[in-house]
Structure formats: structure tokens, C-alpha cells
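hiii so um. not sure if this is the right channel but i have a protein structure encoded as C-alpha cells and i wanna go backwards to a sequence. like what aa goes where. can anyone help
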């Protein structure tokens, strides 16, 4: 094999190695982006739940029944958001 051929082979092997590493890093970046997205959604749902809870605390008499339904729905939505966020975190930690 000539020096040129050996050099080409060496560079091709390095390029192949870098392609694999690039794909691994891209997958991790995508996973982190999804986690950031999930955390943003989770924060929004937590804020909505806190808002409904604050509203409930300010009510008196029978008016709390009207707010309760909205609070229950916000709680269900928050519970689901936590479930999705945990799922994404578990996927990310298994990839590392």
C-alpha cells in the first residue's frame, strides 16, 4: 500500500468514527431538547394549578365547588405532565 492509500484509509477511519460520535451527540441533544420542552410544559401546568389553587383559597361559601372542577382538571393535567417528564428523563439517563 502506498503512503497515499494508507493516509486515505486512516482519514476515512477517523471520519467514520467522528460520524458515529456526531450521531450519538445529536441524539443526546435531541433528547435534551425534548426534556427542556417537557419542563417548560410542566412549569406552565404547575403555574395553572397554582393559580387555580390560589383562586380556591380566596373563595368562600359554596363558590369553592365551582372552582373545584377546574382545579381537579388542572391537577389531572399536571399529573400527566409529570408522567411525561419522568418518562423523558428516564430515556435520557439510559442513553448516557
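sure thing!! here u go:
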Amino acid at each position: 500500500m502506498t503512503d497515499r492509500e494508507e493516509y486515505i484509509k486512516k482519514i476515512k477511519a477517523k471520519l467514520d468514527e467522528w460520524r458515529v460520535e456526531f450521531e450519538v451527540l445529536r441524539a443526546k441533544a435531541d433528547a435534551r431538547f425534548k426534556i427542556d420542552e417537557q419542563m417548560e410544559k410542566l412549569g406552565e401546568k404547575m403555574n395553572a394549578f397554582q393559580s387555580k389553587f390560589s383562586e380556591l383559597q380566596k373563595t368562600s361559601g359554596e363558590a369553592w365547588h365551582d372552582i373545584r372542577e377546574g382545579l381537579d382538571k388542572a391537577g389531572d393535567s399536571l399529573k400527566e405532565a409529570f408522567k411525561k417528564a419522568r418518562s423523558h428523563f428516564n430515556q435520557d439517563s439510559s442513553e448516557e
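oh and Helices lie at 3-58, 64-95.
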